[in-house]
Design goal:
By secondary structure, the protein is α+β, with helices and mostly antiparallel strands. It is 47% helix and 12% strand. Helix 1 packs across helix 5 and helix 7 runs parallel beside helix 9. It starts with a helix and ends in a 22-residue tail after the last helix.
């Protein structure tokens, strides 16, 4: 029995696909004929008999392979057949997600308490929605009339409450009854606890009737999880009342194309792909940050290199400083030698020369400062009784100065040994 039922459902499913393919074929042929009729000579003529005769002549000419304005009957039929075959090979359903409590408890009943709750829906696609396949009581997915023309992602799900030609009577006396115009339907939310006046829900009470062309398809199945899923109730003509070969269309479509496990596996794969795309985007941003940091590091390195003095320049500066110090020392020594000196007797100059020779032989550790200061002591110690020998080499320079004060000798301080040649042996 189960195998027999499966065969019946499969046959009913194939009949549904054949019905869609037939609708596509007829629609393609009708559209091609309408397009050709609009291009025929006399298409703008208001005489219907002339338009019919012209259309017949053009069609016969085109069909016979003459110079017609269209591709010909055979070409139209071939194109329509190709489109119908493509429709037959495609699935009858597609999946989408729904959030919000507008259709609770029929769809997404958990959305009443949890605004983040969502359900996966199976939509029976309607390629050419019309009063024949959009019926009162159907739960349909449609493009929102509040969206812009290029916004194809703003999709709403509502239940059809009325179709073209039906009269709508408002519960408010302030609003008069009206008739739904041709090619339109009236949709409402299932959740009666939401108030349109407070902006809690949006449906035809907010934006009015919607055209059939906005309808995408009929919702036939809803799944909140692998363990919480169920078919969606629509007009009975799509179910048991419209059963053909013992099975309704929605039942056959659900049996043939709905795979709950596959729905959630596909959803998990999509989520993983989205996460991978987000991670790739984050890695790309991090890479850009790394490049920015590397550029900043190189810039700081260049600034530090610019602030570092050149070693050659540092050596040149050191040499210049040493040269300046030596120049200052030589200037000070020259100034000491240029002081006026009183002539000394030959007897005094000879001991002084001997003393200088002794100092050159034994005072090799005399500092430059000691030599310069000793020169100053020599210049000042040549006055009898007023010599003050100043030596920076040690205390011996002071003693030499003291001896120079008793005589007319020259006192010089020896820096390394602390010895001084006293002038007390100089004859007065």
């Amino acid at each position: 029995m189960a195998q027999k039922l499966s065969n019946i459902l499969l046959m009913r499913y194939r009949l549904s696909k054949l019905k869609d393919a037939t609708e596509e074929f007829l629609h393609s042929v009708f559209r091609a004929n309408t397009y050709q009729a609009g291009r025929l000579p006399g298409a703008d003529d208001h005489d219907p008999h002339d338009r019919a005769s012209s259309g017949t002549a053009a069609s016969s000419t085109s069909g016979g392979g003459g110079a017609g304005t269209g591709p010909g009957v055979s070409g139209v039929v071939r194109a329509a057949y190709r489109r119908a075959l493509a429709v037959y090979e495609q699935p009858l359903t597609e999946h989408m997600m729904i959030t919000g409590p507008a259709m609770a408890p029929t769809i997404n009943r958990h959305g009443i308490k949890d605004p983040a709750a969502s359900e996966r829906l199976v939509i029976r696609l309607l390629r050419h929605p019309s009063p024949r396949n959009v019926l009162v009581g159907d739960v349909v997915a449609f493009h929102s009339p509040l969206a812009t023309l290029d916004d194809t992602h703003h999709i709403m799900v509502r239940r059809v409450a009325a179709v073209e030609g039906q009269e709508m009577v408002s519960s408010s006396d302030a609003e008069p009854p009206f008739i739904i115009p041709a090619g339109h339907c009236w949709v409402l939310a299932d959740n009666t606890h939401l108030r349109v006046e407070d902006g809690e829900v949006i449906d035809s009470r907010s934006y009015g009737h919607i055209p059939y062309s906005n309808v995408i398809g009929r919702v036939v199945y809803a799944a909140a999880s692998r363990h919480d899923h169920r078919p969606v109730t629509n007009n009975p003509e799509h179910g048991s009342e419209g059963a053909l070969l013992g099975a309704g269309e929605d039942e056959a479509v659900v049996a043939a194309e709905v795979d709950v496990e596959g729905m959630f596996d596909e959803g998990e794969e999509e989520e993983e792909e989205e996460e991978e795309e987000e991670e790739e985007g984050e890695q790309q941003v991090e890479g850009e940050d790394e490049e920015d940091r590397e550029r900043a590091r190189r810039k700081r390195e260049r600034e530090r290199q610019a602030q570092k003095p050149d070693p050659a320049a540092r050596l040149r500066k050191h040499d210049e400083e040493e040269g300046a110090e030596e120049g200052a020392e030589e200037g000070a020594a020259a100034a000491g030698r240029q002081q006026p000196q009183q002539p000394q007797p030959p007897q005094q100059q000879q001991p002084q020369q001997q003393q200088q020779q002794q100092q050159q032989q034994g005072g090799k550790e005399v500092a430059p400062e000691g030599r310069d200061s000793g020169a100053e002591g020599q210049g000042q110690g040549q006055k009898p009784g007023a010599g003050t020998g100043v030596g920076l080499g040690g205390r011996a320079g002071e003693e030499a100065g003291a001896d120079g004060s008793r005589g007319a000798g020259a006192a010089r301080g020896s820096g390394g040994s602390g010895k001084a040649a006293a002038g007390k042996d100089t004859p007065q």
